[in-house]
Structure formats: structure tokens, C-alpha cells
Amino acid sequence: MNKRFETFTVLINRINRNIRKIKNQEMAEYNLRSAHISCLYYLYQSEGLTATDLCERCGEDKATISRSLDYLEKNSYLICEAKSAKRYKSPFSLTGKGAEIAEKIADKIAFFFEQVSADLSEEERLQFYHSLSLISKNLDNIVNKKV
Question: Which of 38, 71, 76, 100 has its CA 20 to 30 A from that of 127?
């Protein structure tokens, strides 16, 4: 049992740490951090997302997304379209600069996912994501005391 716990937690932590390192290394020349990259990527995929939408898609807390959006807006990567509404409910859109960087991010993500899954068959990949989804759901249930 202990070996299973150690393997699971160490591997999940290592994967998460490596993803953040890759994001930070790849975007250092633009002075962008991990959470910035996620915001740009999801806005590139679906224009007009709110801070609430980004929290859900990025899996980050409200404070992290708020800081990221402030940084990205101040550095001309995105704009908040509705200035009068509450900010967390207002849609954000990429500027030309933001769209250019977001396209590079999307290309890099596609490249890295090709490398990461190169040794997996399509069936293995689908099973892996299915298993990961079940684990995530079960952990959510434990956290939310639904078990």
C-alpha cells in the first residue's frame, strides 16, 4: 500500500512540476509564467472567456487567474471588453500581440504532446485519460465529502 501511495504522489507531483518547468522555460523570453500561458492558450481556443471560465479551464484559483489577467492586460496581451460589468464576469480577448504568442504556445503544446505520447498507442492513451479522469473525480468527491 505504501509503495502505491509513494508512486502515485511522486509521479503526479513530478509530472506537474515538469509541466510548469517546461512552460516557464519555453516562455521565459516573453516574461510569461505558467498561469499566463494557460490563460493565453485557452483564450486562443475560445475567445471571450471570463475570469471564471479561465479558473475552470486552467484549474487555477481565482487569485492566480486574477493576477495573470492583470499582468497580461498591462502587457498588452489581452483586453477586457466590458469595462462596466464586474471584472470576473467580463469577457477577455487576445490582442494581436497576444494572439501571436498564443499561436506559438498552441504549436509548442501540440509538439510536446506528440513527444510525450509517442510511446503510447491510441488505446493506451484513451485508457490513461479515462483512468486519470476517474481518479480526479474520486479525489473531488473525497475533497467535497461526497464519499
Answer: 38
- Rounded to the nearest angstrom, the gap between the alpha carbon of residue 127 and the centroid of all alpha carbons in its chain is 21
pLDDT in tens, 111-138: 998 999 999 999 999 999 999 999 999 9
Phi, psi of 93 (to 5 degrees): -135, 150
Q: Which of 107, 123, 27, 39 is nearest to 73 (CA)?
A: 39
Other C-beta atoms closer than 10 Å to the C-beta of 98 total: 22
- Provide the H-helix boundaries in the chain: 2-27, 34-45, 51-58, 62-74, 96-116, 122-143
The Cα 63–Cα 65 span in angstroms is 6
pLDDT tens, residue by residue, 34-89: 889 999 999 999 988 999 999 999 989 999 999 999 999 999 999 987 765 567 78
CA distance 147 to 25: 40
**Cell 517546461 found at:** 22
Residue length of the chain: 147
